[in-house]
Amino acid sequence: PFPPPTCHTDHTKCLSREDADALMQTSNRPVQGGVLQDASLLRTVTLAEVPTAAALEKLLKEQGLPTEIWGKDGTKNAAAFWKEIKNQESSLDLWQKADGTLQPVRTTHVLRAKVSSAERYERGIFVFNTWQQYENGTQRTRNGLLSEKLSMDEIPVEEHLQEVCQRAIDEEMMC
Fold first, then answer.
1. What is the dihedral of CA 143, 85, 175, 134, to 10 degrees?
2. What angle do CA 24, 88, 146 make, to 5 degrees?
3. pLDDT at position 5, please?
4. Do residues 132 and 139 touch, judged by C-beta distance below 8 A?
5. Distance (Å, rounded) from C-alpha 6 to C-alpha 22?
6. Between residues 17 and 37, the one the model is more confident about
7. Contact 64, 94 (CB under 8 A)
């Protein structure tokens, strides 16, 4: 049975480690270097500094980010980013690059987990999330492990591992 239309559905299948590794090569991964090569973290912007979505958008524009193009082609707009900050799902970090300019960075912490029975894990088989359907019916390819975004209060994750894993299974796999 399909979940009620207000839910999103993640579709999964069991894959071998080799097949999952091959699919994950196409997934988003953190970039080493790039614009943050030799940069240093100056500070994390607080909610007190950006008490509203408009204040966040103003700060981002002052840093040279073209927020008017945000929210198109499936990306989040500045108001959605502010909501993430307010709900402690992400943070805005200001980095100083080697040339002295500031680079704002949206930071999130995500747990990725292998879900398997002990017997299947021995054989290298575990649940692999292949695609996701949103409440409006649109779909996107996932091709990744079970994942769950952490709140800033859940860092370090070791202190909250059991509850985060259970939430991931409950929410993402609709168990």
1. -60
2. 25
3. 26
4. yes
5. 33
6. 37
7. no
